[in-house]
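Hi V.,

Quick status before I head out on leave. The structure for the redesign project is tokenized and pasted below; the design run finished overnight.
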């Protein structure tokens, strides 16, 4: 079987304060997402979110329902967002083909029964990063490119956080139930993301870091604003961010990350800011 999954349970700030380094990583860090010939998924009980990767090699890969869903097919009660972080690949949704280049996205609504992943060059495969959340209604499948995205420039080189935010799967671009996804690209010389830090108690989030050089790393910060923790991360790794946690990072080089979130509020600007000087 090419589909593998693991489950992570929700935890409170009180519990997380007591975790050592390895325990913190076990709870929130997601590794091994991009393995050739496999689909690897992590099901978290924070908003029943799923983050994963599909890397089709010489054979195509089919997205199958995992046991925790208790469903006949994966999208029976879910929606799906996909961003390609590898070479060109094709996604077949109930017989309709969508070809995604590097950093292009696809939204697939509830009710689609068969999702198949293919690589155009099996030696240099596509790497499909997947996010999924429960859905109450089915919306049309839509491909999103840089030309369709809502693009925002934020930060400055003076504060080491000049970055481009590409809003790909958001309400201004495509209709969804609760899933939102986008991609933030740090400019050369900038290393800080998501500053000033914030929480949004009405939705959780998952960060996926990529374009991190092999000999470099990103330090991801989480926790309550007055009780922060950190997790060192490598290329193609993801981290779960609970609703009560900040989510920010600083790299030893520039990098790119994909943010995905779900919850009861689709307002991108719904954030409770934490002043940088107040972080502890």
């Amino acid at each position: 079987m090419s589909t593998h999954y693991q489950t992570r349970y929700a935890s409170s700030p009180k519990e997380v304060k007591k975790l050592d380094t390895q325990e913190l990583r076990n709870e929130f860090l997601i590794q091994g997402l991009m393995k050739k010939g496999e689909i690897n998924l992590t099901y978290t009980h924070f908003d029943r979110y799923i983050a994963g990767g599909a890397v089709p090699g010489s054979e195509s890969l089919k997205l199958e329902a995992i046991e925790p869903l208790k469903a006949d097919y994966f999208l029976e009660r879910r929606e799906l967002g996909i961003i390609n972080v590898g070479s060109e690949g094709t996604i077949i949704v109930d017989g309709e083909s969508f070809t995604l280049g590097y950093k292009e996205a696809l939204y697939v609504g509830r009710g689609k029964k068969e999702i198949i992943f293919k690589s155009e060059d099996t030696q240099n495969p596509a790497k499909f990063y997947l996010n999924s959340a429960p859905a109450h209604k089915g919306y049309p499948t839509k491909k999103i490119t840089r030309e369709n995205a809502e693009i925002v420039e934020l930060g400055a080189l003076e504060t080491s956080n000049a970055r481009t935010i590409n809003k790909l799967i958001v309400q201004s671009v495509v209709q969804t139930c609760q899933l939102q996804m986008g991609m933030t690209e740090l400019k050369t010389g900038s290393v800080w993301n998501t500053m000033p830090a914030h929480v949004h108690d009405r939705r959780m989030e998952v960060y996926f870091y990529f374009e991190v050089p092999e000999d470099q790393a990103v330090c991801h910060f989480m926790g309550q604003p007055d009780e922060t923790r950190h997790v060192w991360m490598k290329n193609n790794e993801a981290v779960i961010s609970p609703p009560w946690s900040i989510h920010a990072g600083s790299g030893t080089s520039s990098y790119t990350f994909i943010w995905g979130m779900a919850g009861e509020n689709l307002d991108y600007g719904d954030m409770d800011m934490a002043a940088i000087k107040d972080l502890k």
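Above is the designed sequence. The first strand starts at residue 3 and ends at 8.

G. will cover questions while I'm gone.

Best,
W.
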